[in-house]
């Protein structure tokens, strides 16, 4: 059974100190199917990701695969009220 997650964007901080770390992180993110988009800011050591996922689970998964400390800076969840908006407009 697959859980239904809300659309959310999350900003993480992790140490990306070399090109090999950057490539490894990029490869990990591309293989994660729950992510829709990502942005790696190498100089600021920040990672922004968007998609339908559990923020805690994704942070733990990245930490385990990168073997580095991951700090969650910000989480924004977006509700999908598109169905309600469409019904309100029609009445």
From TrEMBL:
GO molecular function: metal ion binding
SUPFAM superfamilies referenced in this protein's UniProt entry, alphabetically: HMA, heavy metal-associated domain (SSF55008)
Name of this chain's protein: Heavy metal-associated domain
Organism of provenance: Macleaya cordata (Five-seeded plume-poppy)
């Amino acid at each position: 059974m697959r859980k239904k997650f809300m659309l959310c964007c999350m900003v993480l901080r992790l140490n990306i100190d070399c090109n090999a770390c950057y490539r490894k992180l990029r490869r990990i993110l591309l293989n994660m199917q729950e992510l829709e988009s990502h942005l790696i800011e190498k100089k600021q050591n920040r990672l922004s990701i968007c998609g339908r996922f559990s923020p805690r689970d994704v942070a733990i998964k990245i930490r385990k695969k990168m073997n580095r400390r991951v700090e969650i800076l910000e989480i924004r969840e977006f509700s999908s009220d598109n169905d309600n908006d469409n019904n309100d407009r029609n009445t």
